[in-house]
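Input:
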Amino acid sequence: MNYFFSFLVLAEIFSIVAFSTNLLMGVVGIFSVAQAAIMGIGAYTSGILVMMGVPFPLAVLAAIAVCAGVNLISSLPSLRLAGDYFIITSFGTQLVATAVFINWSSLTGGASGLSGIPVATMFGYSFVTASQFAVLSTLALCLVALSFWLILRSPYGMMLNAIRLDEIAVVASGRKVLQTKIGVSAVSGAYAGIGGALYAAYISFIDPVSFDIHVSVLVVTMVVVGGARTLAGSIIGPFLLLAIPQALTLIDIPSTLVGPIRQLIYGLLLIAFMLWRPQGIAGKSL
Amino acid sequence: MLYVQLIADGVVTGCAIGLVAVSFAYFYATTGIFHVAHAGIYTLCGYIAWYLTGLGIPFILALIASILCGALVGMFVQVTLYQTLENKGASPLVKLIASIGVLTTLQNIVAIFFTPNIVQFDLPWRLNSLTIGGVWFSVPQILILLSSVGLFAAVVLFSKYSKLGKRIRAVASNPGLAEITHLNPQRVFVYVIAISSGLVAVPGVLVGVDQALQPYTSLIILLTAVIAMIAGGIGSLGGAFVMSIVLAVIQSLSVAFVSGRWSIAVVFAIFVLFILIRPEGLVRRKFSRAI
Amino acid sequence: MTYLNVSNVNKSFGGIRALTDCSFSIRPMETTCVVGPNGAGKTSIFNVITGFIPADTGRIEFKGRDITAESRHDRVEAGIARTFQNLRLFETMTLLDNVIVCLGDNGANDPLSAVFRPFHTQAVLRRKREAAMMLLEQVGLAHKAGDQAANISYGQKKLLCIARVLATGAELLLLDEPTSGLAAAALDNMVELIHALKNQQKTLLIVEHNTKIVKRIADEVLFFHRGTLLAKGKPDEIIANEDLGKIYFGSGA
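Output:
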């Protein structure tokens, strides 16, 4: 049972990060392969603050603010210019963030990471076991999903869709495209920050490998497999893809090959879905 | 003297990155596809040569075989993936994600079928070196220098003077028009990816000989190369090559001031500076693709 | 004070001159047609006026205000909006949503109000729906409001472009070939709509190829050739001018 709840918590945390990617990539069409890095920044921010004695809710708020800011700043140079610059900024943000996690060891514990992050405590309750934490992560996922849904059905959400379809036409109608993109970057960063803060509190150990480029590619795969622009897509993807490593444990393969085989599956899934089902399982076409 | 050595090392690294940049830019400027999987072909070719030399095959034959393999894999990706996506009217985002899928697939095929560990070539001569004017070069470094400059010149000459090179440039500057004049762009793209994938095999193998092979590090090299391409002005092969060397020299010199582990941050900082100050790159070109 | 004043505008792309020393002005509440052979610089002048390409030199004034260096967004806010030759509709969105996105109403247009003031946001959306519906009615597309833009006829798409440009609230509308490719009935419909817009105090600058249409809608005609303004006058004078006719139809060239 505990095994089920720990899977549930992890899948819900990644669903939150998938919402972050879906908002940028699925809705506005801004490529992002740095959402794991942003999630990591949230995890380190909240983890370090909680270890310093800051109450968990405040640490989560700080993580949200920092991630919204970082996502915004990292995308700012590219927001001014359309197109492929964003790809490089995105890869660059991811690689630089990993370098920071590894090399700023006085703060992040370097490659060996931070361990012993205290359990999440809110309003007198401690979320220690997986089943207790599942309450917290379910609540967070519901809030994120609700906000995603509200944004999509607002006039602002219509404009996000319109920017993906034809940015020039949106500009020509006198809308503030830059301001819109800045807003969406901040919201996307905030989602990833929530995901990161929950991850740090639940696992109680974070290291650079937990938030490297492979994790970002995994998050992209989740959105691609689940499907763009729908609530169901952002939730189905993480649950399915996190089940793959579980399924692999049933097959007898050498431990050194587990990681590569898992990633090979992600890579093949990306290609297959782009070729034959760009709308994913339950979404709309990218 | 330390600085001279650092500069020399930077130039060598820059030449290798320059070939990656030139080969990437050649495909990118022609097709507009952000071919991230290029980094996967780079990795794959290095491991193929490593595997073949391990079987006792002479190095030069292993190098040629890996160039051919690179070209074939590239053509396969173009024909089965990019062309299919193009025919389906897929967006650039879809092509990019598919390309990331190919990169991930190639990297992990290498890790599964060869080894996920760091490996070195078992070639005694790779440790030989010579000193020119007080500057130390390893034999692989010399090979990198000579082959990069030679191949770069060959690509430029090919693009300018050969019949196929001219056709490629025609397609790059105006795919629609080229189609009307019976230059099938998709056919031309297959040639282009074969050339650029074959080219990228050379630094893929030689850098591996000089240093070591790792399945997952090529993305950083590609990112540096792409930044050099942008800084040099897209569509300008010379700009991409020269800026690769400049970037690598700065990166190499920066080691004297900040830890080498921050070098990716240094490169990225240069990129941010560039897009803030001069987004069109150093060399402005008439036929540059709008990025 | 002139209404829109373009003076000495030059623009070249990598050695190719798109506009050479262009100067003209248009009067408010009139319909001005831009005519000329292909490559005459008609769309370039639209791009320069709306800020989609910066002029190399020259000056553009709108209602006495220098807008040469202003952003595209500010120009729409000042009252200049355009359509595109290739339409640029949001194909997978409904007609109603196509118009809503272009409405100049900035209410609840940020993520925070979408999330934290959902009821207010929905009220704003209802208001926008009503406004957009009125515009669709005006162009005769109200019955298609819920359809996807991709699924309507070409003529209807052109009408949707007009509804979108009206949604910006601009008073000077630049229409890039609003009648091209239309069948007779749709064409008459569009001409009627253009007349109706003029009666609503809109100023129109229209790229138009068909001289018959020009006669029906234009108060003033600007004849462009090779990036310069060659002639300006009443439609009858310009169309009757044989020299211009030769350039336009390429007969004597």
